[in-house]
Amino acid sequence: ANTLRLYLTCIRNTLEAAMCLQNFPCQEVERHNKPEIELKTGPELLLNPVLICRNEAEKCLIETSINSLRISLKVKQTDELENILTKKFLRFLSMRAEAFQVLRRKPVQGYDISFLITNYHCEEMQKQKLIDFIVQFMEDIDKEISELKLSVNTRGRLVATEFLKQFI
Amino acid sequence: MAGHAGFVEADNAEAIITRIEHKSRKIESLLKQYKPVEALKTALEGSPPKTRDERCKSANWIVVHRAIMAIKDVEGMFSSLDPEYYDILMKYLYRGLSTGDRPTCDQCLRIHEKLTERAGLGCILRSLSDTVNTV
Questions:
Q1: Using the beta-carbon criterion (under 8 Å), do B109 and A13 form an inter-chain contact?
Q2: What ipTM does the predicted assembly reach?
């Protein structure tokens, strides 16, 4: 639990420093405004990507550019069941990315879920609240997945008991 | 100018690696004398910022890693470490965090928290934005 606190503090501090976004219209095409972290049109617009690992299984990749910031998370998955649950649950969330605004529809290759924060989000919403949201999300994900796993196991046990009663 | 830099690097790579080996011997002796802070200072001092050579950077990283893992008392370390080393220490901490190795990450996370308290967000931002002197 102590490493979790340190891990989240590190991510929070890095995000506070990295979330320095400003509007930057596209340099190549007139009247276009694209998130530079996704398109990577020029090396001068990008900062060093930072990978923060808690252990071999959990990590967080933070990539910043001049007008956008991408956070990719890999959630801890200890067994096959958690693997499937995580994939399904996060896919469910990603499909509803419109509602979340800062969520990305597809996670970056090698990660479970990704957030894309642009300068427009920073203008409309408070930076601190955005960071709180991301950190809260990371805390809640673990709880959600363990709750799901517990309910799946309970349901499985009940169903199996009922089914096998007929053979007694 | 890029060509000239290329030549300089080819000659210096060997020199730098020899220097790093000297440094690592010195650090081993400092660690034996239970002076982890001095060891860390020595490790951070001669960091070759201008080389593009991955081997020099990896060699230096190994040395710094050894010094970082040997530190037990983080608070005490900061009271004796000069502020000029904060930026370069932050860069090495992020390199440590990217390795994914559990004890390294634990140690780096611990030091990162204290270093941010000391040096502030500017230190993090300098390590993010410095694309020239990477570690």
A1: no
A2: 0.87
- Name the DSSP class of A27: S
pLDDT under 50 in chain A at which residues?
Answer: none
Q: CA-CA distance, B35 to B49, in Å (whole number)?
A: 25
Is the pLDDT at B4 greater than 60? The verdict is no
Across the interface, of B97, B102, B116, the residue whose CB is closest to A52 is B97
Domain carrying residue A49: 3-165
Chain A hits for B101, Cβ within 8 Å: 56
The pTM for the full model equals 0.87
Which residues are paired to A68 by β-bridges?
Answer: A118
Q: Which of B95, B101, B109, B134 to mutate to test the interface with A (most CBs of A within 10 A)?
A: B109
For B86, half-sphere exposure in the C-beta direction (CA atoms, 13 angstrom radius) is: 21
Q: What is the pLDDT of residue B11?
A: 59
Task: Give the model's confidence band at B71: pLDDT under 50 very low, under 70 low, under 90 confident, else very high.
Answer: confident
What CATH code is assigned to B13-129? 1.25.40.190
Structural domain total, chain A:
1
Distance from CA of B105 to the nearest CA of A (A): 6
Contact B119, B83 (CB under 8 A): yes
Contacts A–B by Cβ distance under 8 A: 68
Instruction: Decide: residue A72, CB within 10 A, 0-12 exposed, 13-18 middle, 19+ buried.
Output: buried
Interchain proximity B125–A9, CB inside 8 Å: no
Taking CA–CA distances from A49, the nearest residue in chain B reads: B128
